[in-house]
Amino acid sequence: MGDSEGGSVVRDARAESGPGNRPLRWMALRAACTLALVVLGYYMLPDDFDGESFVVRCLIFAVCVAGLAGLILYLIMREPADSVSARAEGLLLTVMVSLAFFATVYFRLSQDSGQFDGLETKTDGLYFTLVTTATVGYGDIHATGQAARIAVMVHIVFNLVFLGAAGSVALARIKQRRRSGTGSA
Fold this sequence. Notes:
It comes from Yinghuangia soli. This protein has one domain: Helix Hairpins (Orthogonal Bundle). Helix content is 77%, strand content 2%. The chain contains six helices and two strands, in the order ααααβαβα. α4 packs across α5.
């Protein structure tokens, strides 16, 4: 009895570290490279977009939020035959892009006087976005203007929808692993 249990553990350890995990390694590498590119792109964006009117900027914001929400819905509603890993990777990409997007919005709003207190650089914008997404809220940076408060409210609602979607994908992945683990035992 001890040999069969020990052998099972050894087989499980080999399966986890063997060539079957190459897709997982590639997914992690792609995620790391994507994160680096998104952060690089965020910091390379020009600081001034003064040519657009407030209404045009609001429309662009609304279209981008709707596009990100649509992408999330598409990734969640894919056919069940699609890989859960691909859905999870797509959601991870979406969250990276949405973090950069909201950080850009906050930084641009901070350029208008009276919209934010304590947000002065792109790093501050990214920091505030991460703190808001993580629902930490240190209070060192906060929205003071109406446009900034509306943007933060949209971000919070977006996060609630995204976190629900991410939880759903994570749960599906756990269920898929359990089914494949019990089916082979």
